[in-house]
Amino acid sequence: MIPKEEAEDLVKEKVDNENLRNHMYAVSSIMEKLGEELGKNPEKWARIGLLHDVDYEETKDNPKEHALRSAEILEDKLSNEALKAIKSHNHKHTGVEPENDVDNALIAADAISGLIVATALVMPNKTLEEVRAESVQKKFDDSSFAKNIDRDRIMYCKEVGLDREEFIELTLEAMKGIDEKLGLA
Asked: Which is nearest to 162 in space by CA: 150, 147, 149, 172?
């Protein structure tokens, strides 16, 4: 598995957009927390989360290539299981269906990170510290808030044995742990 520093260097090399890099850091943090909670390999899960969108700037105009290109870039750096998880996070376009915990966790983590950031950005000081799980719950239920975030993807948390409330609490805690790195401190 690719070492953390090398993975972060690859993100800096392939991703110019700071918001996209921050999204990838957030998903990495969430995946690490989920790996710990589910008794999996948190380091491996963190790497999957960090690298899942490494191709996005290259493939954003061609959704059918997104995630497949990431897998090509990462072929000699991650396990087959990790590459499959990355491909399945865009399963509606790649046709690689999620089949296990890491696949489902990545789909849910990818979506929830955006909802939490959007919630932080409407707080008075725009910090994660201000965000409470209850606020994220309310924003989840408000379909007019952050309309581009697919709530059904967040609900993949059920596939790993977590209800929505538990999932939101865990993911919010994970992101608060890196709030400075995300620019939301």
From this structure: 172
pTM: 0.97
Altogether, the residues listed in the chain come to a count of 185
Q: How much of the chain is in helix, strand and coil states, percent to nearest 5?
A: 65, 0, 35
Tell me the C-alpha to C-alpha distance, in Å, between residue 47 and each of 5, 64, 109, 174: 10, 23, 13, 15
CATH of the domain spanning 4-176, picked from 1.10.3210, 2.20.25, 1.10.600, 2.60.40? 1.10.3210
- Judged by DSSP in three states, 34 sits in helix
Within the chain, which residues score under 50 in pLDDT? none
Amino acid residing at 106: L
The domain locations on the chain are 4-176
